[in-house]
Write a structure and sequence with these properties.
The complex is a heterodimer of chains A (406) and B (670). Chain A is an alpha+beta fold. Helices cover 56% and strands 12% of the residues of chain A. In chain A, helix 1 packs across helix 8, helix 9 packs antiparallel against helix 10 and helix 10 packs antiparallel against helix 11. Chain A starts with 15 loop residues before the first helix and ends with a helix. Chain B has 670 residues and is α+β, with helices and mostly antiparallel strands. The model of chain B has no long low-confidence stretch (mean pLDDT 83). Helix content of chain B is 51%, strand content 21%. In chain B, strands 9, 10, 11, 12, 13, 16 and 17 form a seven-stranded antiparallel beta sheet that branches. The chains are: A alpha+beta (406), B alpha+beta (670). The interface between A and B is large, with 92 and 83 residues. Strand 3 of chain A pairs antiparallel with strand 19 of chain B.
Chain lengths: 406, 670
């Protein structure tokens, strides 16, 4: 069986102007999308709200995930079972959404808690209920308040009651002195965590969901700046070394093409993530790295043929050589991409959550990677070749002029 | 029988004897290797094809069985015991593939950062700076540089700087007139971070500002997270996750192995706070304690020693020691000693340090932990672990018994400081304190330049010493925690991906690879079958190498696997397409295979090398999952060259030369 008739040369370069325009548009569009509106970073990068719930009746992780996603108010959650002999159905549920307290409410809270009030004796601000420090948790659901003396918690509670738009969470020991040594008080506000519990109650039935969560907490990101920076820097460094290798193995004209093709593919994939509102997680980084590797290999195979044909057909223009080489390797290109695509498609169809996102990135990446070898890497090499005035430069110019004239 | 065949058979017999001996000596890996050599030699002696071909095939067979053995225990774990692995093998292969947090779950540890400690540190720094400022104002000291011992004594005659509370510094002047020394310049210098409170007429009280305190807290937590992250990385647990939550650090470690968990906990908790403090032997603090106040019932007693006190001088110095009771641990003994010392009236610029007492056993010569002794130290740390740039373990064999120590290197700033401190305190003792316990209290013989110091590992059997040195090296290099952390919670957690998602993912993986394999056979016929064999072999080798360093298999890791399997398929596609081209050009089968491999090889090598380079760099400079991805990528690339080019070539060679095939089954007719 053969996919393409052997020996036939397709004129890929004739229509390259359109494809190059498309590539530029796609890459630039993706670049813009990456800044505005920007990618939807998952909890891996952004942190989020984490609640720990001990369900009262049997429930499995899939059900919880489904319930949270179905509600529409929350992103796809991470659901992790926690082994606990006393609570057999204990789960950690992490969502991206975090509660926020707006600036006006923050100011109102500061005032109500008598932050920085000194001296005098006020009915609202007695000496044992004057906050000296007020810290809002990053999750917006908690206040850490410090006092100079042992605070009057009942008074503090009453002070909080005067603030509109802010509700205290219904829980025992709220507010609570968490550190008697420096009189630190923790106040829990109604938050996304409570909302999440409501959603669960609604979807799973009130008999399965407990009154309150074991914990509601804001969690920081897993992958901080450090990881992002190291990923970016190491990719940049890898690109430099790959250029050096290719410059050595092929020649200088070839190296930039591979790199540009990789960058193009990575951009397009990230752009697709923004367009389709998919979450960027640590797995996405892995997917992008995979795609970069795939794209490099694909480009190198085409280059290898170009190099071989350059030696064999000395009289032909660079454009013709590209056409010939791409045509000769076409069945290989389609076969490899097809085979890889087959396996990735299976993930895309059967996978869920992160796996589906991963497969999505791969599908986009494989298409981009295959295409970029032909319409990004090869034309750039041709262009550099023409600029450098090396072999075949005059022919290329002639061809270009002829193309303009018609 | 040809001589070469005779030789290979002799090799087989010799290896078989070696294997038996290894088995007897319970040397498992020796047994495995010689067993594989037997296999290799036996294949080499088969009456088919030529010698070089048989040698290569023998090697491939050995690699295949070696991989299987390495993966045996892992297979048992992954198949839930359906594939049985004998205990003999299981006990000897201690490594295996660990499924990552996303696939299997693991241990979730929550630690609370004791930020108070970080605040106290900062406060002490401010107090130091203030002492310096005051010394300059009182004309005790000129310009920059450390305050010398005698400078401090002089300063003490005029003013006492103390830290009565976590965030408070009190300056008490002997002469109330001196209060004016805290002038506008002084206030301006510290005013940004400290607020001043009125006190008695002869004192000034400073408190760290709330916002500065908050900053210190936050910084301590972030720094602690980064340090823990580095340690986790150094442990090779690249797939563990570290997050923060308020003043907590959450660490999730993949796996199920209790032993591995304990090691992780030990390394993570080590604060690795290294401090160098001067001893105050002149004060003879313990000598002034009346005997009636020493509770002999607690096995505590006061002893004395001669201590150097500057060049040519020595003083009689007393110290307290406690003997460990038979039924208590060293820590319990230390607790008892500390309970007593807490009742003593220690001036706030001094602290009591504790060192282990280890005495050699007369019969065995081994050192035994006897109890603890005290040292009377200045509270201020002259040099701290902040200045450490490197740590490396080493063994000193000069003095009879090998002595293990960790050599530390200071940064230039630290080296200067160390030189200055040691220069100012020749013939005095200083204490090297690691995590609040004195490691040693040597006498400074002369000024120590060059920024090097060493920490001895005490007395114990060499193995334990070496292991401890390794741990210490690791934690010192990854940096100290800015504040101690205490465990507040730990629980076992399930996979983050969810059982349902994993199941579906597994179906996807099976369906996907099944489709690819079927397609290859459909398109290339028998050659496709060869390629499929190569791909599966590639997977086996990759898993075996991953298992051999207890790698973690996570979703990103599987992505790395998928890419390299794609590469392996690609290599065979390239070769088969080339062979078809050559056949089309009218070459003989043999020439077509030859040329197909030769011409495809350059493309394959360039593709592989490019990816190999990026893998190397990502592994070197990447962190966390990026590193994990890169490692699988590197392994896969090497395995792909081996299986996709080397192994398939052997099959083709056999076809065209051994089986003398008239037609080559590559899915097209020529």
């Amino acid at each position: 069986m053969e996919l393409f008739k052997p020996g036939k040369t397709y004129d890929f370069m004739r229509v390259r102007a359109y494809w190059i325009a498309l590539s530029v548009a796609l890459a630039l569009g993706s670049l813009i999308l990456l800044f505005y509106p920007g990618p939807n970073y998952g909890t891996d990068f952004k942190g989020g709200t984490e609640i720990e719930v001990a369900f009262t009746k049997a429930v499995d992780g899939g059900e919880i995930r489904h319930a949270v996603t179905k509600s529409g108010t929350f992103s796809e959650p991470d659901v992790v079972q926690v082994t606990d002999p006393s609570h057999p159905w204990r789960y950690l549920i992490r969502v991206q959404e975090i509660s926020t307290v707006d600036e006006a409410s923050k100011d109102a809270l500061k005032k109500a808690l008598c932050l920085g009030v000194e001296g005098g004796d006020d009915a609202h601000c007695p000496a044992n209920a004057r906050a000296t420090e007020l810290k809002f948790s990053a999750g917006g659901d908690k206040l850490a308040v410090r006092y100079d003396t042992d605070p009057d918690l009942a008074k503090v509670k009453a002070q909080l009651g005067t603030v509109p738009n802010v509700k205290l969470r219904n829980a025992p020991n709220n507010p609570q002195v968490v550190n008697p040594r420096d009189h630190r008080v923790e106040i829990q506000l109604q938050s996304k965590g409570d909302q999440l519990l409501d959603v669960l109650r609604q979807e799973l039935g009130a008999d399965r969901v407990p009154e309150s969560a074991l914990r509601v907490e804001w969690v920081g990101p897993k992958a901080g700046k450090q990881l992002r920076d190291s990923a970016r820097n190491s990719v940049a460094l890898a690109i430099v070394f790959i250029m050096l290798y290719l410059a050595f193995r092929f020649d200088l004209r070839f190296a930039p093409g591979v790199v540009l093709a990789c960058v193009h593919d990575a951009l397009v994939v990230l752009g697709a993530f923004v367009v389709f509102h998919r979450e960027v997680t640590l797995s996405t980084i892995a997917a992008v790295l995979t795609i970069v590797g795939y794209s490099m290999n694909d480009t190198v195979v085409v280059y290898d043929r170009i190099r071989e044909n350059l030696g064999k057909h000395r009289g032909k223009s660079f454009g013709d050589i590209i056409n010939m080489s791409v045509s000769e390797t076409l069945s290989r290109t389609i076969l490899t991409s097809g085979a890889t695509m087959l396996s990735v498609l299976a993930f895309f169809i059967w996978g869920t959550g992160v796996i589906k996102d991963f497969a999505f990135a791969m599908v986009v990446g494989i298409i981009a990677g295959t295409y970029s070898s032909i319409y990004v890497a090869a034309p750039l090499t041709e262009w550099i070749d023409a600029k450098m005035g090396r072999r075949g430069a005059t022919e290329t110019k002639k061809r270009l002029r002829a193309a303009k004239a018609t | 029988m040809t001589p070469s065949r005779r030789n290979t058979l002799i090799l087989a017999v010799v290896s078989a004897i070696a294997a038996y001996l290894f088995y007897h000596a319970d040397n498992f890996w020796g047994l495995v290797v010689s067993g594989l050599v037997v296999l290799w030699a036996l294949v080499g002696a088969l009456p088919i094809m030529d010698g070089p071909w048989r040698t290569k095939v023998g090697f491939v067979v050995a690699v295949f069985f070696g991989s299987l053995i390495v993966l045996w225990p892992t297979f048992e774990g992954m198949s839930d015991g359906k594939i049985k692995c004998p205990d003999y093998v299981k006990d000897r292969i201690t490594f295996g593939i660990v499924k990552g947090l996303d696939l299997q779950g693991g241990l979730r540890l929550v630690y609370t950062v004791e930020v108070e400690e970080a605040i106290r540190d900062k406060r002490d720094k401010f107090a130091d700076e203030m002492r310096h400022e005051l010394a300059v104002a009182l004309k005790i000291k000129e310009g920059e540089g450390l305050l010398k011992r005698e400078d401090l004594t002089k300063l003490e005659e005029r003013v006492h700087v103390s830290a009565p509370e976590t965030a408070v510094i009190k300056i008490k002047f002997k002469n109330a007139d001196d209060v004016k020394l805290v002038d506008d310049r002084f206030k301006k210098k510290f005013g940004g971070e400290l607020s001043m409170f009125p006190g008695a007429a002869d004192e000034v009280v400073f408190k760290i500002r709330q916002e500065v305190e908050t900053q210190i807290r936050e910084k301590a937590v972030t720094q602690a997270k980064e340090t823990v992250n580095r340690r986790v990385d150094e442990l090779g647990l690249r797939e563990a996750s570290v997050t923060t939550r308020d003043e907590d650090i959450i660490i999730e470690v993949p796996g199920k192995d209790e032993r591995a968990f304990n090691e992780v906990k030990e390394i993570i908790r080590k604060t690795a706070r290294l401090e160098f403090k001067m001893l105050d032997d002149d004060a003879d603090f313990f000598g002034k304690i009346p005997e009636s106040e020493v509770p002999a019932s607690e096995n505590i007693e006061i002893r004395f020693e001669n201590a150097p006190a500057g060049p040519g001088k020595s003083v009689k110095n007393h110290f307290a020691r406690i003997d460990k009771r038979e039924d208590e641990s060293m820590n319990q003994a230390l607790e008892r000693l500390k309970k007593w010392t807490a009742t003593l009236n220690v001036p706030d610029d001094h602290v009591i340090g504790y060192e282990k007492i280890e005495d050699p056993d007369e019969d065995t010569g081994k050192f035994i932990e006897k109890g603890w002794r005290t040292f009377y130290l200045y509270q201020r740390a002259e040099v701290t672990g902040e200045y450490i740039t490197d740590a490396a373990r080493a063994v000193n064999t000069q003095s009879g018994m090998p002595e293990v120590y960790v050599a530390i290197t200071f940064s230039p700033a630290g080296a200067d400081r160390f030189e200055e401190v040691t220069g100012a305190n020749v013939q005095r003792r200083f204490a090297i304190i690691l995590d609040d316990v004195i490691n040693s209290a040597p006498v400074i013989k002369s000024k120590i330049g060059g920024g090097r110091a060493s920490i001895t590992m005490g007395a114990g059997d060499p193995d334990t010493q070496l292991k401890n040195a390794e741990k210490l090296e690791m934690v010192l290099r990854s940096g100290a925690l800015p504040a101690p952390i205490t465990p507040s919670n730990e629980s076992l957690i399930g996979p983050t991906l969810g059982q349902d998602a994993i199941k579906k993912g597994a179906i996807g993986a099976l369906a996907g690879s099944g489709l690819v394999l079927a397609f290859m056979v459909f398109y290339y016929r028998k050659s496709g079958l060869v390629a499929d064999g190569a791909v599966l072999f590639n997977l086996l080798i990759q898993l075996a190498i991953l298992a051999s360093f207890s790698g973690t298999l996570t979703l990103p890791g599987i992505a790395g696997l998928a890419l390299t399997i794609g590469m392996a398929v690609d290599a065979n596609v390239l070769i088969n397409e080339r062979i078809r081209e050559e056949l089309r050009a009218g070459r003989s089968i043999r020439a077509a295979v030859e040329a197909g491999y030769d011409k495809a090889f350059t493309a394959i090598v360039d593709g592989h090398v490019t990816i190999f380079i990026s893998g190397l760099i990502l592994a070197q400079y990447g962190t966390g999952p990026v590193k994990g991805f890169a490692v699988t990528l590197i392994i896969g690339i090497i395995a792909s060259l081996f299986t996709g080019v080397f192994c398939t070539r052997l099959v083709f060679d056999w076809w065209v030369r051994g089986a003398k095939a008239k037609r080559l089954s590559v899915g097209a007719e020529f």
